[in-house]
Amino acid sequence: MLLPSDIVQLIARESEENFDNYNYIKGVLLKRFKLSPEEFRKKFLYHQKNSEKSWREFTFEISNYFQEWIDGLKIDSFEKLKNLIITDQIKRRAPFEAKYHFLDEWMRLVSPSELADKLDEYELVRSDRKYETKRKQHFNPIEKHIESNQRTVKHKPFTGTWNTRNMGYPSRN
Q1: Is the domain of 47 the same as that of 92?
Q2: CA-to-CA distance for 119 and 93, rounded, in angstroms?
Q3: 47 confidence band (pLDDT: 50, 70, 90)
Q4: Is 36 within 8 Å of 107 (Cβ atoms)?
Q5: 58 lies in which domain range?
Q6: Where do the DSSP E strands lie in the chain?
Q7: How far apart, in whole angstroms, are the C-alpha atoms of residue 66 and residue 10?
Q8: Dist. CA 58–CA 49, nearest whole Å
Q9: Residue 159, SS3 per DSSP
Q10: Beta carbons of 57 and 28 less than 8 angstroms apart
Q11: Do 43 and 67 meet the contact criterion of CB atoms below 8 Å apart?
């Protein structure tokens, strides 16, 4: 069996002393090709059964993805697992703008209460910003000054009937 070229190149860079050290080479490869917990979460959620593989193999694959996902986040109790699953559901329903806003810490958030507090704070700031923008749009001192200097014209409501002769204008009588 041949190794892919990127793995061969990675191993070839190592010194001769480390070249025969299986644990060292394994560590180098795992470090280089280790997927993040988020990648394992995606693999766990979206992995499809291949028609050539059995259901047992599929179960083994998604079990490994799940295990790597929770190991990467250091989930070691039922309470932490419960929080992770609840947090994942909240993250799926969060608006894209919030995900983008918390991009640096999004993957590390595994506490539902911490995530909820951050999302509430984000929405509060956004709603305040929207309110300020609306207030600024409604209050324009230049427009108010122009309006106050213009002559006010009061129109009487039309109480007559419309026909082709008067075209909706009140009669002069």
Answers
A1: no
A2: 11
A3: very high
A4: yes
A5: 37-74
A6: none
A7: 28
A8: 6
A9: coil
A10: no
A11: no
Could you tell me the two tokens for 9?
């190149």
Pick from 33, 111, 107, 41: nearest CA to 69: 41
> What's the length of the chain?
173
Pair (101, 113) in one structural domain: yes
pTM: 0.55
Query: Residue 137 falls within a domain, yes or no?
Result: no
CA–CA gap between residue 143 and residue 162 (Å, rounded):
36
Contact 62, 47 (CB under 8 A): yes
Query: CB-based contacts of 110: which residues, under 8 Å, 6+ apart?
Result: 73, 75, 80, 83, 84, 87
The Cα 132–Cα 128 span in angstroms is 6
pLDDT of residue 62: 93
**Mind listing the pLDDT tens digit for each residue in 114-166?**
999 999 999 998 887 665 665 555 555 555 555 555 555 555 665 666 565 65
Domain count for the chain = 3
Whole-number Å distance between alpha carbons of 91 and 105 = 12
